[in-house]
Structures are given as C-alpha cells and as structure tokens.
Amino acid sequence: MDKLLLKEVILEQRDFIDRAEQGIERKVLLNLKKYFKLPHTLVVSGIRRVGKSTLLVQLMRNFYKDTSYYFNFEDERLLNFESNDFNALYELMIELFGEKKVFFFDEIQNVKGWENFVRRMQDRKFKFFITGSNASLLSKELGTKLTGRHLSQKLYPFSFKEFLSFKNYKFQPNNLYKTVERGKLKKFFNVYLKEGGMPEYLQYQNKEVLKNVYEDILYRDIAVRYDIKETKSLRELALYFLTNLGGLFSYNKLKKNLSLGSVNTVKSYTEHLENSFLIFTINLFSYSLKQQAVAPKKVYCLDNGLANAVSFRFSRDRGKFLENLVFIELKRRNEDIYYYKTKNNLEVDFLLKKARKVKQLIQVSQNLKENKTKEREINGLITALKELKLKQGLILTEDEEEVITLKGIKIIVQPIYKWLLMPVNKKNEN
Prior knowledge:
Blueprint: H1 3-19, H2 28-33, E1 41-45, H3 52-63, E2 68-72, H4 86-97, E3 102-106, H5 114-123, E4 127-132, H6 135-145, E5 150-154, H7 160-166, H8 179-195, H9 199-204, H10 207-224, H11 232-242, E6 248-249, H12 251-258, H13 263-275, E7 279-282, H14 289-294, E8 297-301, H15 304-311, H16 318-332, E9 336-341, E10 347-354, E11 357-364, H17 371-387, E12 392-397, E13 402-406, E14 409-415, H18 416-421
Helix pairs in contact: 1-4, 8-15, 10-15, 12-13
C-alpha cells in the first residue's frame, strides 16, 4: 500500500480520535480493566455502531493516554491494505508518535491474516486491544493463531442503567420506592423499550442511523463478504426475523414460506445474520441433544430500536418487544439461554442453564390483568418448574409486582424496569 496515503490516514485518524467525545462510561470497562496486566490480546466484538470505537477511546484516554497507537481498518482508503502492510504501518507509527507498546485496532477483521502480525508482536511483549463486527471471522482467526492468548468481551447496546446515564438521570436504588422517581423511571423505560440502546441513534434521534446499520450489515458485512449476488432472499429473511421477535422457526419452513431455494441457503443466511450480531437464535432445552437439534428455534434482535426502525411493528407487538428486551439483557449478563416446553406443550420463554444444571425459568408477559392470561402464565411456569425439580420461578411484566406461592412453589412477579436495575438474585433450590 502507498506509504504517503497510509501516513495521511494515520494522522487523520489520530486527530479524529483525539477530538472524539468520550461518551458515558460503559460497564464493560470494569471487566476489561482486570485483564490489563495480562499479556493476552483483548478482543471486543459487537454490531456496527454499538460503540466499540468509543470504548477504545475510553480505554486509551483513561489508561493508555501516551503509550498507545490507534488505527481503524474500516476506512475506505484502506481497501488495498494487506497483512504484509502491517510492518509499514508500525514503522510509520514510530516515525510519527515514537515507540509505544500498546496497539488499538478497530474493525481488524477487514484485513485477512491480521492475526499473524498480532501473534508476532505479542511474542515481543506488545499489548493489543482489537474490535470486530463479525463473530465468525474473529473466532476462526483467533482460534488458529491466538488460541489461549486472547480474551473476548462482547459489547451490546446500552443497558437500561447506561441509557439512564446517557439521559443524565442518576439512578439510586432507593428511587424505586419513591413515587415521583418511580414515575420518571417508568417514563424512561417506555422510551428505552421502543428506541433501544444504540448510542449514535440516541444521540441524533434519526432513524436513518439505524436503517444505515441494517443496510451495511446486509450488503457490506454479508452480501459483499460472502459474494451473494442475489440479495432479495437475504433481505426477506432478515425482515422476517425482525418482524417475528420471539417467534419459533425451522429452516425447512422458512425455505417453503419464503421460497428461499434450499435449506442450506436458509441456514447459511441465518448464520451470517447471527455472526453480524443482528439477530440471535436459541434452542429448545432438552436433555436429548437429538431432540434439541431438530426442534424449532426462537429468534431475537440485538436492539429494539433497530427492529422497530426496520419493521414498524412496535405498537401492535409491544409484548414481543418486552420479551426481546429481556432476552438482550440476559445476553448482556452472559447467561446460557434456551426456551422450554413442558410435556403437555406449555411454553416457558427462557430457561437459564449453568454447567449442566437448570438455574432459572423466566416467563415474560405484558400484564397479568386478565385471569385467563394469569392462569396460563402461572400454570405453564409451575408445570415446568415441577418437571425440572425447581422451587422458584420468575414472571416479568410491564408494571406488576407480587409473590405467588402455589403447591410449594414460589413465583416472583416483577416489573421489567425494576429487574433491569435490580435483578432477582435469590438462587433456586433444587
């Protein structure tokens, strides 16, 4: 690659990063901080525009202000950058900024073979912080060259606590017990439920930001990268998923209903959408791996605001958006998530597993005001708890709170906004 152009990019990017706003402090900073003294490469992955670059800015300014280099491989002028250009990049960095021992690399998956440079410099005691927007590419490259020499951290859109900080609301646990403050929290929650937690969208309040993220994922991250010429089927599948939050699907039915060619095509496109962090799928929980493999999956979107901007279904699907919001938070908490069906086919929204044991069952319902709804949710949860030999379950609703004890089983009913801020920590008894 031309060295003069590379030098121009380095200087422009450094100027940009020096002037960039630091934003609100992300919770994952605490998780990353404990790894600073380790020699491992720290990998931050997540969807486009979720705030990975801002997180790197926070890390650089707070901990590595004068000891690090920064470079973003998403710059369109770097289309011809190849793995053998890393030495030239490093040489120019020394020329411009002097010798430093820490690299911050943004969207590194755009350069094939990047892991070879990282591994070589790691052996020379250099520290790396890297980000990427493609889970599959990152895991493949990390697995081949950096096995046991990297640590990973996923970055999600703002949590509700981070959203409140963004809105300059200082949350204190006691606020949940004050009428006025509780009213404010509910108002913020209603906005968060609809608009999600993508930082740039929340800053500018322009849905084009979210639509651009969606289009970039479909075309730049998937169609171009995997050489998909006919994108109509990919768009139809993505739209189907975003308009069916929490819905069950099978590859075979999608192939038939959307006329998507073959089951392998549907499976590949779904995997691409997952690897770009746009969607997540979860399996039915079963002690039989065969049954788990053939059962329908459930699908969720990474961000409510993103799903709403693309699907325009929020008003009629509020309950599904509540369920999706709970799912995102469970992912943020690094839970191992499944859904569950009882022997008589009653469904429980989320089953959380730790190691080989079932940890918790969670049902999500917009409200329990109607006796029929309340009976259905409670019966399904109690039946599942008995089958799995658990004594406590959780129902998350929009704004209801109580403790129900039936047949020796305790069910905690809690508002979602409160659960997001102060989750139930009591462990299930087996």
